[in-house]
């Protein structure tokens, strides 16, 4: 067989879910086309990459996510779904570019669901129930990120990164891609391996896997030096860090802030703690008892680097680290509860 059974099932599941979940894509496309949510518009950047006269280059850090935008180029060939009441001054090329980015985001979300289930089955030893729970959790948690932007490709890369924790070459390749796809991938794994290096006995392995992350950061820095672009004000002056933190704190105390910042952080932190209830030492190197520290550390990064109501979605990028252990813990609890409720069926 060219493909293993779990991989073949994963591919078939991806194809099936891509069709079954199409209403999610239609909703996402409407959000993107009608600008229901204020977000960064990568469509002009996509047009720039293909040499279209309407194209333009955004500032930093958006322009350095070039591979994520380039991945949407093939989807421009798809037929454009038309909607009424779109702005009359939008060109067909611009609309096609926005749709292509929406297609990419949708497919990356579906792929993340499949990778989560595949990792639960092949890396954490989950049965059918745990595999389903992992995929279901991934789908639910993916709604916390900016699917209408370029968060979904980053989430998929992080999910693949978890799969690749048993292979240094594969993980290294992912970090190289991530450097020019989305810097948040480097941040998540950089924090994870830094914590493992400091707090876990198996420091040599953590150091080996931290090196590709550092190399990815170096590549990102080289791109910034080779193609300098305007930065946001708080990125240029360290004196703006404290005001940025205070602004994020104030925004988080509003009703919108509680929903968009506080709640997602609490959800992913609860997942991280639930993951610790299973025997993670049996599933090294895919999980560790100290991985939960990534959440508060990523929160600190988000409070410094992000703007107002983006803290929650940035911290939510850590959830792929915990999906497998959480699915396994839930599966074990459900099976134990079933055995106690129906002792005659216990094996």
From TrEMBL:
Keywords, comma-separated and alphabetical: Membrane, Transmembrane, Transmembrane helix
Name of the protein described by the UniProt record: Uncharacterized protein
UniProt source species: Microvirga vignae
Organism domain of life: Bacteria
Membrane-spanning ranges: 12-38, 100-121, 127-147, 154-175, 181-199, 206-229, 249-274, 286-305
């Amino acid at each position: 067989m060219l493909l293993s059974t779990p991989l073949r099932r994963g591919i078939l599941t991806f194809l099936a879910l891509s069709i079954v979940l199409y209403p999610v894509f239609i909703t996402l496309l409407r959000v993107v086309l009608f600008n229901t949510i204020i977000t960064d518009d990568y469509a002009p950047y996509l047009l720039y990459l293909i040499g279209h006269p309407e194209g333009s280059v955004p500032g930093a850090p958006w322009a350095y996510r070039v591979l994520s935008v380039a991945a949407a180029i093939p989807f421009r060939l798809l037929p454009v779904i038309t909607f009424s009441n779109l702005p009359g001054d939008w060109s067909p090329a611009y609309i096609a570019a926005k749709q292509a980015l929406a297609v990419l985001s949708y497919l990356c979300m579906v792929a993340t669901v499949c990778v989560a289930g595949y990792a639960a089955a092949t890396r954490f030893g989950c049965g059918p129930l745990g595999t389903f729970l992992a995929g279901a959790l991934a789908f639910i948690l993916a709604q916390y990120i900016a699917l209408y932007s370029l968060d979904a490709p980053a989430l998929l890369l992080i999910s693949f990164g978890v799969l690749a924790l048993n292979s240094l070459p594969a993980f290294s390749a992912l970090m190289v891609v991530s450097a020019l796809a989305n810097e948040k991938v480097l941040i998540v794994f950089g924090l994870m391996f830094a914590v493992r290096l400091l707090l876990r006995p198996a420091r040599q392995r953590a150091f080996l896997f931290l090196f590709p992350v550092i190399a990815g950061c170096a590549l990102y820095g080289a791109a910034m030096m080779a193609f300098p672009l305007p930065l946001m004000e708080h990125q240029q002056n360290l004196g703006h860090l404290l005001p940025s933190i205070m602004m994020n704190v104030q925004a988080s105390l509003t009703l919108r802030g509680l929903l968009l910042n506080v709640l997602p952080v609490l959800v992913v932190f609860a997942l991280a703690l639930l993951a610790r209830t299973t025997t993670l030492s049996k599933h090294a190197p895919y999980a560790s008892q100290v991985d939960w520290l990534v959440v508060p550390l990523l929160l600190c990064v988000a409070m410094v680097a992000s703007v107002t109501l983006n803290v929650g979605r940035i911290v939510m990028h850590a959830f792929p680290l915990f999906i497998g252990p959480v699915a396994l813990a839930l599966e074990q609890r459900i099976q134990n509860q079933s055995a106690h409720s129906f002792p005659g069926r216990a094996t």
